[in-house]
Amino acid sequence: MKHHRTGAAVIAAVTTLALAACGGGGGQNSSSGGGGFTAEPAEGGTVQVLQNADFSYLDPARGWDGGVNNFYRLVYRQLTTSAPGSAEDPNEIVPDLAESLGEVSEDGLTWTYRLKDGLKFAGGDPITSAEVKFGISRAWDPEIGIGSPYLKQVIDAPEGYEGPYKTGDLPTIETPDDKTIVFHLIKPFPEFDAVLAQVNATPFPEGSGAGDEFIHEIIASGPYKLAEYVPGSTIKLERNESWDPETDEVRAAKPDGWEFTIGLDPATIDERLIAGQGADVNAIAGNIQPATLPRLQTPQLQDRVLEFPGICTTYMGLNTTKKHLDDVRVRQAISYAIDRTTIVNASGGTQLGDPATTILPPTVAGHKDFDLYPSQDGTGDVEAAQKLLDEAGLSDGFTMTLDIRSQESMQAQAEAVQQALERVGITVELNLIDTSTYYETIGTPSQQNDAAITGWCPDWASSAATFIPPLFDGRNIYEKGNGNLAQINDPEINSRIDEIKAMTDIDAANEQWGELDEQILELAPVVPLMVAKGVMLPGENVTGLFSSANAATGGIDYVAVGLKDPEKG
Predict the structure, then answer these.
(1) Mean pLDDT of the chain
(2) Is the pLDDT of residue 30 over 70?
(3) CATH topology classification for 1-305+537-569
(4) Whole-angstrom distance, CA of residue 65 vs CA of residue 483
(5) Contacts for 281 with CB less than 8 Å, ≥ 6 apart
């Protein structure tokens, strides 16, 4: 979101899929005219993907965001993974390289997995427990392991351990034989199967991937391998002949290949999809731009409009270490003054988003519906905001700096915030940051300004545990890859996080995450703005289009995608 995703350790913005959002069960997609999105693809052909920006990293220990996580599904495998978007429950975690989900000890501290037979890397080398252990231990490397944080937070490790290249063996992961792997945890974590579905749990041959080796190269374990990579321009995938479909119940892998065209202007992507000429009949992309939406009402396009409901929360983080924003009354005043209706309209209207008053979106387990800062029609309560500013001694307002991506739709959101806060005397100056470095910048506390607009998506949608702790646990404020943009470090919040994490009943824990959501927003460290929705225009020859909350931050899950006619285009 996920970082998902638009999440903590995102190093570069990816496709507009980072803004497309969805949720729900298999086949949870809709169209204006029912364009046959879910038909089973034929064998063969090449799927085209049109993108604005490059992927963050090919190395899954480094990358951790919605667009690239989805790409990883094509080339990498883990012990467990998210069910395909076409599954009855696409939010379910299922076995992948492992024969089954983990066997857990009575004390919850030891998890055991056994590998399937016939697993190989591209090139034919076998995947054994040693390669699984090696790949996972890369997450502890301080320079390489900047992606998903869950492995390091949950698996026990010696103090000062820095991965296989610097420290060597990780004794808390045991490999008694080639097919068995045993994990020892710091504390019981009943959702450990989901932790091992994170992309940085990918196996690699022992000794590989040091330094920058995987910046432009990969060692595939999935159905496709890298045929060509021109950074900022093209990625081509071809079949991995060492992949055995008998071992893989998740990836249909019907196309012969995939071609990603990178660096396209979003408006150009829209024009190509609308025209649908040549190979673009086989193309998919992220969200249609707001300015293009009215054109989709034409009869010849309506049958191709694909809509997904939202799973990702767009919010404004308020840096609680900054002057004025360290006063809860000021943060609450900002929460009252925000005009969510205008923000939604600036983002393309209700077709592309719904106003949000909670951190947890409705599609994530544990969501509790509440609004601590209500206003008529969601336009903001200026009177309530001004009263709080008066109490804080800021009747004349103040000036703050808002970090924002240098994209038209993002700037429109920021300008809506400007206009709303100007009504209570708060002057908002915009600091435009290039999309490719935006998340790296706002995720570095030393470079943060007063506030930033970003988003968060679930790493696994069956639990709110991937929303609240990364954003609000004060003990996880990192020098780089920081998700706690508010830099809030509240003992009561930290304590509640620990208590809920220790609960073995996941349903009961999710209910408590919803309660904690409300408790946190009483302190107003962030301002929820909207839940983004997806509106896409796939090529007329593309099918197998299903959403995935876990794997694709609500966008199209690549694992079922293919072509109706492989000879077309």
Answers:
(1) 90
(2) no
(3) D-Maltodextrin-Binding Protein; domain 2 (3.40.190)
(4) 12
(5) 539, 540, 541, 542, 568, 569
**Is residue 235 a contact partner of residue 558, using CB atoms and an 8 Å limit?**
no
| C-alpha torsion sign, points 68, 530, 467, 459 | negative
Residues contacting 108, CB < 8 A, separation 6+: 185, 187, 188, 189, 190, 504
Same fold, 1-305+537-569 and 309-533: no
Beta bridge partners of 237: 226, 258
Q: What is the mean pLDDT of residues 62-84?
A: 91
Alpha-carbon span 214 to 277, nearest angstrom: 35
CATH superfamily of 309-533: Dipeptide-binding Protein; Domain 3 (3.10.105.10)
C-alpha distances (whole Å) from 325 to each of 317, 428, 446, 464 are: 11, 13, 16, 27
CA distances from 359 to 7, 92, 466, 540, 562 (A): 13, 22, 12, 36, 35
Question: What three-state secondary structure class fits 370?
Answer: coil
- Quick: pLDDT tens for 291-328: 899 999 999 899 999 998 888 899 999 999 999 999 99
Percent of the chain whose pLDDT exceeds 90: 74
Residues with Cβ within 8 Å of 40's Cβ and at least 6 positions away in sequence, in order, are 254, 543, 544, 562
Angle at the Cα of 39 (from 36 to 40), degrees rounded to 5? 160
Task: Judge whether 258 and 550 are in contact, CB under 8 Å.
Answer: no
Task: List the structure tokens of 470.
Answer: 């990364």
Rounded Cα distance, 355 and 439, in Å: 23
Tokens of 167: 């420290």
**Environment class of 396 (CB within 10 Å of its CB; exposed 0-12, middle 13-18, buried 19+):** exposed
Residue 132: which of 122, 142, 121, 141 has the closest Cα? 121
CA distance 79 to 100: 9
3-state secondary structure 468-524: HHHHHCHHHCCCCCCCCCCCCCCHHHHHHHHHHHCCCCHHHHHHHHHHHHHHHHCCC
**Domain limits of the chain?**
1-305+537-569, 309-533
DSSP label at 120?
A: B
